[in-house]
Amino acid sequence: MENNQAKPEYWASVGLASIIFGIFSFAVSIIGGYLIINSEASGSLAMTIAQSVIGLMSCLVSAFGGLLAVWHYVKTYELKITLGDGALIGFLTGAGIIIVSTVFQEMWSVVDPEFTSKMVQSMINNIEAMDMPDQQKQQLIDSVAVQGDSSILSSLLWGIPIYGILNLITGMIGVSVFGRKIEIE
Amino acid sequence: MIMNSSSQPNKIYYILFAIATGLLVTATGGGLFGQESIWLNHWQYKLFDGLCHQDTARSFWIGSSPMAVCSRCYGIYAGFAVGVWAMPLYYRSFKTIKFNILLFITLIFLFANLGDALGSLMGIWQNTLGSRAILGGLLGTGSATLLIPVMDPFSKSTNYYYQEAITYGK
Asked: CA B78 to CA B75: how far, in whole Å?
């Protein structure tokens, strides 16, 4: 057996998982955004249960990109994979998910140019209805307004590390789930 | 099937240890460090934005700041960290357990979380900060145990893994 056989590129697996989970992440964020826009200002930071479930889906499902990418890689090429390979594939998939999601969000801003401003306004209306000191209220409003103006670079800067790390972990778990340990001397 | 392993030190466990600890500390939020600005400006809060709903009513608070993630997510990160930290203690006994059993138990924890959220959505029951954190913690710890077959904290070698139906090399 040749140990040093060149490994096939893993970009196809990374790309596939990135696109699937990137689109899912985008869809969840858009649905969540419209839930906020269409909700009445309750004066509470508490979300509706539907919003929370959407958030739970985003949190739990977006982390599974690494699993899918490792499964696809191992299944397609049937070759050796180390824990480090799984971690790398997972990290790259996480980065890919946030890139795809960000690109789709930018495209959505063409479909509905007022999406972000409506969401920010809805959140500000909600904060204004809150029972809290004016100074703290103003701080919250300023922060929400700044978040609404965040750039693509900012989204990538914050998103890539955390999505990358979570999918790095699931990529390692993927090696465990879809791989089989071979004997080593 | 026999394969030579490279003799490079296995540092992956220690890297994972650092990652799990870092995630937990970050998820705890700015309150842990006494950051005084409004929590929306905390870097920890921004980091988890988009990954967690960060509903302040469904999060633990430290001082005047909510944690950077909701109680369920915090449970997941805490449970995973505990699972990784304790791995050297339970590794030898857990590696005798069939992997499918560990996987099955973790899947039960996963569906318990989904069921808990749906049950709350449908008004069947009302979950609490604590119940969500505990269910999340079980899922996090279960996930850490899934690394047992591939993560030997005591190993100094790099192991290789194949897909089950492999015919490679024959």
From this structure: 5
Candidates A29, A166, A181; nearest CB to B159: A181
Structure tokens at B54: 């960060």
Residue A22 has pLDDT above 90, yes or no: yes
Query: What's the confidence (pLDDT) of residue B8?
Result: 40
With an 8 Å Cβ cutoff, are B113 and A44 in contact? no
CB atoms within 10 A of CB B30: 24
B chain contacts of residue A1, beta-carbon cutoff 8 Å = 1, 3, 168-169
Cβ of A53 within 8 Å of Cβ of B160? The answer is no
**Could you count the other beta carbons within 10 Å of the beta carbon of residue A10?**
21
- How far apart CA B51 and CA A162 sit, in angstroms, is 8
Residue A14 tokens, joined:
């990374």
Beta bridge partners of A111: none
Q: Could you tell me whether strands B161-163 and B2-3 are parallel, antiparallel, or unpaired per DSSP bridges?
A: unpaired
Residue located via tokens 């499964």:
A71
Specify whether the CB–CB gap between B141 and A63 falls below 8 A.
no
Q: Tokens standing for B123?
A: 């008004």
Q: Give residue B170's pLDDT.
A: 33
Is the CB of residue B114 less than 8 Å away from at least one CB of chain A?
Answer: yes
In whole angstroms, what is the distance from residue B104 CA to residue A83 CA?
22
- pLDDT tens digits, A108-154: 989 998 888 888 888 888 778 777 777 777 877 877 777 666 678 88
